[in-house]
């Protein structure tokens, strides 16, 4: 159990709820008790969506970081490219954040719409897309889109599912805005993974650092995400992971949890590694590389592309 304390812009926010892990029948780990929607909205408002100094949004990135962000978005778009024509297809990015994926889709000719609780990230990095971005309660926006009968050819959500109180509800809303033959690409952290469990069992780390409610409320991995999506009426058409930065936990000198000063170098090594592969071999081989890693449970984030079962 833990009490979560966050310091944002010199404002200390304490959630006094005592959280525990709960294994769901579907195999993923959830948080109990769940915060109320009001508590979570207040936490998000005070933690994630402050400008300019925030754990979510940064003032600027250096060239390596920008190249890496662009490459990751290009990889997602490459994985999606076989499922719909780009020019003129509608694209909904749920949790658009700073707008990098929204921009990647826009550059490829998609008719893009972004949703997020804050307009700050898109306005900072891609102000030309501000008119295509809807700020406010994401779930309220989705319900409004459903009521209006809006449909999209491609939906995406990057690091959203782990934050929601009711993931079934969220996926249900996404299904209702997916058009005929639409695809949905989602990304979540690979938590309670084999590497993380090994690091705990072998005493290489002193805590399950990834269990951080109310920041994250749901915890998926390569073992349970696909069955969970199938249970919710989806058919998986592609799955790939990304760089397994948690491998650094297995070496005492690079263990960024026990030696936090090594975290920056671990992150930059990840970026150099991936950009090197793409420069020499291209995005298709990059994706094949991480498809193989997904199959053996390795990768810090996991990416799955689905369509509605029966389409």
TrEMBL record:
Keywords: Methyltransferase, Transferase. InterPro entries: SAM-dependent_MTases_sf. SUPFAM superfamilies: S-adenosyl-L-methionine-dependent methyltransferases (SSF53335). GO terms for biological process: methylation. The keyword Transmembrane helix does not apply. The keyword Transferase applies. GO terms for molecular function: methyltransferase activity. Signal peptide: none annotated. This is Class I SAM-dependent methyltransferase. The lineage of its organism: Bacteria, Pseudomonadati, Pseudomonadota, Betaproteobacteria, Rhodocyclales.
